Inverse folding.
């Protein structure tokens, strides 16, 4: 007879981030299984408490905030300037991104009033600003924003309703070298995030058409090489490259976590440690 962990036990093992192969284990009897569960739970709780004690007395920041600071610094060193734009977004700007009621992404939007929502992405505001900058600055123009985005995403280990996006864009990149530039910019971010193994994979997005996803076991970012069909209505037509990264996913991959909830804004976790221990 092969007995696996019960639903409740599996849930607890996920919360405590037990090794995946352990979670999949099967046993000959319920007694063996429950004993194994008790042992690992005790061990993981002990380790978690130890971690909480260790971080109490050092100058500690959440990993997500540390990564945000690191990426901000590294992008500035690489000639980008930072922008911060409103989190509340007008419906009209979404429509300009072709996110209209018939698009699946539209159904994931959190509305705060009839014509205002919590931004599901940073791109509309960046598109808008680039329209202004293109009149004011010489090219290339390199800008980035990092901040909260919101989507009603199906629950699971890789999605949060509120997450942190980094979106960088370089307008006026060399027309021919877009792919290479995308690779270089990706490398800057992935180095800072301390992730060595990743691939660039061509994919399709309902908003942009072709995208180039940054995949490190799971998708951590999506890049676009412009010009793009969307551009002209924002007042510019130059070649560009842009990439949106999910910061929680970057932390998740670099730390080897199985679930993204450990990294995001939370009341039940602190520094990746489940607090009901
Ligand atoms: P997925 O297909 O994994 O849902 P996506 O392609 O819809 O992601 P993009 O619009 O490409 O996501 O957003 C850029 C990046 O933002 C993603 O590569 C991912 O790292 C991150 N991201 C998107 N949605 C979420 C979410 N709900 N929770 C956490 N991170 C997210
Ligand atoms: Mg994507």
């Amino acid at each position: 007879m092969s007995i696996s962990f019960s639903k409740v036990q599996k849930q607890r093992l996920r919360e405590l981030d037990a090794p995946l192969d352990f979670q999949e284990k099967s046993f000959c009897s319920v007694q063996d299984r429950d004993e194994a569960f008790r042992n690992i739970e005790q061990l993981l709780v002990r380790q978690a408490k130890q971690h909480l004690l260790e971080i109490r007395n050092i100058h500690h920041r959440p990993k997500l905030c540390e990564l945000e600071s690191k990426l901000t610094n590294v992008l500035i060193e690489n000639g980008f300037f930072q922008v911060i734009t409103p989190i509340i977004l007008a419906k009209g700007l979404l429509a300009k991104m072709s996110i209209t009621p018939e698009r699946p992404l539209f159904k994931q939007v959190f509305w705060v009033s009839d014509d205002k929502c919590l931004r599901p992405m940073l791109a509309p505001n960046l598109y808008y600003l680039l329209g202004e900058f293109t009149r004011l600055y010489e090219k290339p123009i390199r800008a980035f924003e990092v901040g909260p985005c919101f989507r009603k995403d199906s629950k699971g280990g890789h999605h949060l309703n509120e997450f942190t996006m980094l979106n960088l864009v370089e307008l006026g990149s060399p027309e021919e070298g877009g792919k290479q530039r995308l690779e270089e910019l990706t490398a800057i971010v992935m180095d800072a995030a301390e992730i060595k193994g990743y691939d660039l994979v061509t994919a399709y997005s309902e908003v942009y058409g072709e995208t180039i996803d940054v995949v490190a076991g799971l998708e951590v970012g999506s890049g676009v090489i412009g010009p793009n069909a969307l551009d002209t209505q924002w007042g510019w037509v130059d070649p560009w490259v842009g990439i949106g990264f999910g910061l929680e996913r970057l932390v998740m991959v670099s730390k080897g976590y199985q679930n993204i909830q450990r990294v995001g804004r939370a009341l039940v976790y602190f520094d990746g440690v489940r607090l009901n221990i």
About this structure: DSSP finds eight helices and 14 strands in the chain. Helices lie at 7-15, 20-23, 30-56, 63-77, 91-96, 123-136, 178-192, 247-255.
